[in-house]
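Friendly challenge for the regulars: who can give me the structure tokens for this chain first? No prize, just bragging rights.
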Amino acid sequence: MRDTQEQHDQNLTNIGQSMEETAASVSTLKTEEPRERGRLKKRILGMFHALEQAQSESREELDGQIGELQNVIAMRFDALNEEITNHDRVHSEAGRLIQRLSQENHALEQKVERLESRNQSLQEKTTHCESLLAKTQGQLGELEKSVLEISQIQQESQTRVPTSLKIRLTEFFQKMMPTVNKSPLPVHRGEKAKPANEHSLHGTPIGT
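First reply, four minutes later:
Bragging rights claimed.
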């Protein structure tokens, strides 16, 4: 395109120079002979014909350049339009993404609030359970103490006669003393007679 423009400029320059020469020749046209006038007239007509041809070529070249520029402009416009469309699509997708992230963030905030509430409830329940555990441990200690006391009482009841039973047996034998003295218990062979106050109940001496 640059070469064509330079050629076109050169043609115009050449035509301009020929016109200047022709103009200089026209000033002497009245003094020339008729044959010289005819030659000069042909030259002038040829120059006008060349000028028209140059203008026609220039017009075609300009039309071609304008067409190329229009094509380039159209392609750039299409590319720009596509870029704008892509930008709008990206902007729309970004908007939807931001909206979705906002919704997810809101849902996460609600979950965090529920978890914090649940955590607080669990802490309260833990504190209550710890209080119940301490109370239960105290009751368990008292229960173990009671079990030990009961065990001791059971051991004592297995090794000796209760005091109330001793008293009742003592009173009973005191009432029966005269009868026992009058009727001593029979003595088996190989055994010695025992005093009346040394009779035993299941092998346990009375009063012990």
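DSSP finds four helices and two strands in the chain. Helices lie at 2-26, 34-159, 163-175, 177-182. Your move, everyone else.
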